[in-house]
Amino acid sequence: MSPKPGGLALAGVVAMIVAGALAGLVVKEPDLGTALMLAIICFTICFAAGMRPRHLVYALVPGLLFAGKMLIFTPFRWRRLISFVDPWADQQGAGYQVVQSLIAVGSGGPHGLGFAQGRQKMLFLPFAHSDFIFAVIAEELGLIGTLAVLSAFALFLWRGIRISLVAPDRFGRLLAMGIVTGIVAQALFNMSVVLSLVPTKGIPLPFISYGGSSLVPTLAAVGILLNISQHATGASRAE
Question: How far, in Å, CA of 146 to CA of 205, rounded?
Answer without folding.
Answer: 12
